[in-house]
Amino acid sequence: MSLMRWFARKAGLDIRSSKYSYSEDPVLGFTSSRKQADRWVNSTCGYCSVGCGMQLGVKDGHVVSVRGNRAHPVNAGKLCPKGLAEHYTIEAEGRARFPLLRKNGQLERVNWDDAIGTMVEQFRAVQCKYGPESLGIISTGQLVTEEFYALGKLVQLGFGTRNYDGNTTLCMSTAVAGYKRSFGSDGPPGAYEDLEHADVILLIGANVAENHPILCTRLEANQSKTLIVVDPRVTKTAMMADIYLPVKPRSDLALINGLLRIVIDEDLYDKSFVASHTSGLEDLRESLTPYTLDYAAQITGLEPELIRKTALLYANAKAAFIGWTMGVNHSTKGTETVNAINNLALITGNIGRKGASPFSITGQCNAMGTRETGFTSGIPGYRKFESEMDRREIARLWNISAERIPTQRGLAYPDIIEGAVAGKIRALWILGTNPLVSFPNIDVLKHALGNLDFLVVQDGFHPTPTTELADLVLPAAIWGEKEGTYTNSERRVSKVNAAVAPPAEARSDFDIFLAVAEHLGCREELFPDWREPRDAFDEWRRVSAGRLCDYSGMTYELLDQSCGVQWPYPIGEKSRATASRRLYSNGQFETDDGRARLLSTRWEPFPEQPNSEFPLILNTGRTVEHWHTRTKTGAISILQRMSPRAWLEMNPKDAQQLNLQAHDRVEVISARGRVSKIELRITEIVAPGQVFLPFHFAETNANQITQSAFDPISREPNYKQCAVRVERSSGNPA
Amino acid sequence: MELPLLTQIYEDGNFLRLTNASSLVPTDQAEISAPSSCGVGAENRMPRTPGHGEQYRFHFDMTKCIGCKCCVVACNEQNGNPADILWRRVGEIEGGVYPQTRRHYLSMGCNHCLEPTCMTGCPVEAYTKDGLTGIVRHSADACIGCQYCTWNCSYGVPQYNAERGVVGKCDMCYGRLTRGQEPACAAACPEDAIRIEIVKVAEWREHYRGPANSPGMPSADDSISTTRITLPAKLPADVSKVDLNQLHPEHAHWPLIVMTVLTQLSVGAFTAICCLQVFAAQSHRTAALVALLMAMLALTASTLHLGRPIHAMRALKMWRRSWLSREVLLFTLFALAATAYSATLWFGVRGTSWLGALTAVLGMCGVAVSARLYLVPGRPAWKSPLTVAEFGSTTVLLGACGADILTRGAEDARYAVFWGFILALMTIGLKLARLGRSKVHELHGSWQLLTGVFSNHLLIRIALACTGTALLPLAATTWIRITIALLMVSSEFIGRYLFFVTVVPTNMASEYLAQEAA
């Protein structure tokens, strides 16, 4: 800055008027001149799977602003605070810009050809030495569907390993497993519109006001609903409830079984629906014998009348909706709990109708895309590894021998990590996820990664705690820099478009996959004539045709025009593209006999009960300003300003007993580790005996204390409950 | 104010009409409840142009707000503000016992008050209350960055932008309103918790106390906020701000510390010089020059407080309304009189003691007005006669120290120092008693800061003054007398530092982990 300008600023002659000027913009209206764009690019938000439509404003090659897309059926122009500041992710500090290879302990810049050549060479060497399945791949829920589809083929057919899973196993695999067991297939049956039409809405372990705020718009729009919220913590969502059920931690399964027993005992179930479309009622009835009202009340800590009232409200509703998220999924009993939820919906006939659905509210923007196309826990198109017919069909579609399709899935995410600890997984490719913050009981993970011969991390950001450990870092394009599709919680497929080019040498994951295939020598076989994501999408449309998740009627043009289309959308679909669609409306399920299964479930106490050494129960969760491990939102100043650091919530009774004051710095200690110097919030939001810690913050990482306990069916971690004690940090003012 | 584009806002049945000041009736349900597929409002939900005796206001519906803070981000994007300046903020209040816990959120921009204290305090007419819309607007071009409005507003609405050297604030997106567009916060709210309404000013003046007040908000009495807040039907009795345990020291404002202490020293010194001339027929021309130098130093220092020092003289403009303007005016006159008086002393012009008396009177008026300007609604610890006593005792004590030196320790001068010391000590004691006994958060908070984080400062201040006083009987040499004066000046500087840093402003409830604004 010249001396003159410095003087002008200091003296007050220059008040940066042009920087702070306003003008009229045809799209944004009258607004800060700096936010006005030359062109607007339609896209879909890259954070959560509500799937809000948005437009990115581009000026001089920079994304300068975003706005909600008013024409989009999901959000009609609204965005959450993360979405409203999403343009800052693109030029955030800490973007990965160049391929980096570890040489003599240091990550050094290499060119792409060397990077991918080294990767393929190292992976092949490990596979030669230890067998093809010694290579593991952990991907994400945040690539575009076209990339997931390509990656699945590349991993299973190109590298020839089944040990491939996504971080979606930390998140939604429980819902997937529950749907498969109950309905014969994955796929959330309802639509967001149901939130506006249900007369009873039961939210279990779902803090939508914090985590999916744009869905609250639908709740707000439904003035005639009764909202019942089940959560041990008085969340923002609990405070919106007409009836709040403050259950003891992880007693949800006992509650639902209690509700089921009342509905059956009092003959409130839909006999004709149960008779025509389900099987297993007698076994279910039998399994519910222990769940008397008193027993349910005792386990959940709820008043018996409140449980009965809930059962009657739900059973007598014209259309009842059950939404759930991580309170249910993050549990060793998660899959069974999902099945119990499905049982409740099925016996009351609350599925496949307007307003009536059991509905998992998904986490990541495209977790659904990887579930449909990913080739991890199933073959693309919700096909089953175990089904010979499915294997033959996919082999025919891909023009390969059916023998090349595995007959069962490989290791799930936690088992890949266990495999690395045991020395069976020797090389790992991690894409778009940051396990050093997000995986439970982090010391086990560190041990696993330390055992590897070669670790490749492909990410939009570097350094992250995970890329710092990599042998090879591949810089990837992120949201706003690439094309494809996302599928949201309600199975709505929306288009994602590139507004700007990736920084420096970063490339889209799609391009990276094609380049890897090229080096592997399988590009033409797996990806014949593929140049761009559209080629993958077109193949996927053919592969999905006739399946539950039928994309065959969709084209990029239709998606761009309509903003978002729910599957199934077969060729020749007559209804309006944006119309709400529901699964199982005809009562036909994806099981062999077309009947949904009523499954017996059994409540058990959570695995690590509090004891004299660790007397408190730790609960973990989120805050609206941040996304997952904060690689993106931690670099955005407005979000950091609003939520600068983690905190620990504790009930005043416990604080008094521990002689702790508000804002004290405390240690949270479990049998596995500790979180240090975290700021204490004393609040009646949490019950006595429980504490709550947000998990976003690497500096005070909740996963230093969480446990290695996983759902036996879905393999999802039990993040939500573990035993801890809290102490004042040393050096704290007394 | 002209609103040329307001005529573009067509006045058909789609707009909100008011039946009275506190209820809002949508005239077209379909427009308000929006298409079922999207569940959010349609594009144009603006009320009509306010008529005679009406103005725009915000309506905030606490029952709808989920604390998502979309409004905060949207506001910063709309105005291109950096993250440390939030023209719209969201705070939390909480109460009840688990599981009947209630946590609610407050979202607040500017309240576009009927009696805006930011505006009445402003020395340069940077603020105007728009005649047609009632919006309290701020002109960055007119602003000199004195930040007096940031003290005057009990809601902490105006915020200083150091990058620009001026203050800025929410103008209800005036530019958008005049184009028929909703303000950014209201348009962004997913819960429809923020709306623009029309209020009948006379009715509001009668009835604002209920709907304008809320737990977690400063009293609407200070300035008659126009924001209507819809509270939940039931709030726990113990609902309160969540940030009550967070006490942050305020900005020290060093130029103001220097300015206030040195003007008071100078006024005290000129008063002493004048008294000595009148009653003891002594002429202290060197002392007058030193005192004048102090006054000049003080006035120069005060301009460094400004974001735009080059426009310091504009501060004289609003002397009819602003105490700050009056302070600047009186101290300017004082400086002019002091210059003339010093010149007469220097050149030995006789019969000019009236000029000395004028200097002293102007100076004392200046000190009084200087103290008066700190009696603002947004700073309860300052809003007390004790502030006048504090500034007065500094003047007396430092003036007496000057007299002590000039008279080479005359008995009367030593008594004056002693009584000045007693006055200062009493002021400190009364202030501590007032703050410590108060149940008001801001007052008690000041006491906590004074006796907690800043207790050492306070003890040193008192110890310095006591030491100076203890030396009085020994004041046999000029050096000791100068030492006493320096001890007293140091004590006063620390006192003034404490005055600024330990004040706890009134404000809306903040978030639990609120960071201090830069």
UniProtKB/TrEMBL annotation, chain A:
InterPro entries: Asp_de-COase-like_dom_sf, CT_Nitrate-R-NapA-like, MoPterin_dinucl-bd_dom, Mopterin_OxRdtase, Mopterin_OxRdtase_4Fe-4S_dom, MopterinOxRdtase_cofactor_BS, Prok_molybdopt-oxidoreductase
Top-level lineage group: Bacteria
Domain 4Fe-4S Mo/W bis-MGD-type positions: 38-94
Keyword vocabulary terms for this entry: 4Fe-4S, Iron, Iron-sulfur, Metal-binding, Molybdenum, Nitrate assimilation, Oxidoreductase
Cofactor(s) annotated in UniProt: Mo-bis(molybdopterin guanine dinucleotide); [4Fe-4S] cluster
Keyword Iron-sulfur: yes
PANTHER family for the chain: NADH-QUINONE OXIDOREDUCTASE SUBUNIT G, RESPIRATORY NITRATE REDUCTASE
Family note: Belongs to the prokaryotic molybdopterin-containing oxidoreductase family. NasA/NapA/NarB subfamily.
Identification of the protein by name: Molybdopterin oxidoreductase family protein
Annotated source species: Acidicapsa dinghuensis
Lineage: Bacteria, Pseudomonadati, Acidobacteriota, Terriglobia, Terriglobales
